[in-house]
Amino acid sequence: MNTALIGFILFVAVALVGWAIAELKNKTIHFKHSEAEAEGEKEMEEHFMQNGAHEQNLQDLLKHNCTKGYSAVD
Questions:
Q1: Residues contacting 60, CB < 8 A, separation 6+
Q2: Distance (Å, rounded) from C-alpha 56 to C-alpha 63?
Q3: Could you give the 3-state DSSP secondary structure of residue 63?
Q4: Can you give the pTM of this predicted structure?
Q5: Can you give the pLDDT at residue 49?
């Protein structure tokens, strides 16, 4: 057999094993948001509703931009 073919078969085998591990990990570990994240999400939702429940475009963002160069860091 050709060395390149053996390398390709090994690559596919390792990729399949990695994929299987990732799938099993995804099914066994359950993710839950923390209290701080839930609070932040609620705050973002309030801000979204405050802006008329539409996503801001670049002009909207620049209208409310409050950067002041180096004085903003102080």
A1: 51
A2: 10
A3: helix
A4: 0.42
A5: 83
